[in-house]
Amino acid sequence: MRDKKPDPSCSAKDETTRDSRVERERLWLEENEQAIAEANAYVEKHGLPLAKYRQF
At a CB cut-off of 8 Å and minimum separation 6, what does 29 contact? Predict the structure, then answer.
């Protein structure tokens, strides 16, 4: 069996893909920061919705 040599174009492509994914995640968090904060504040004030139905 032959050993595969790493393909430099694949690793560059993988890094570009990872960088774009990280940037999309950062932008999504930035755009939704207020909604996330409001949802967290609601849960802190009122507790989890449907928590009384949890089995654990």
Answer: 36
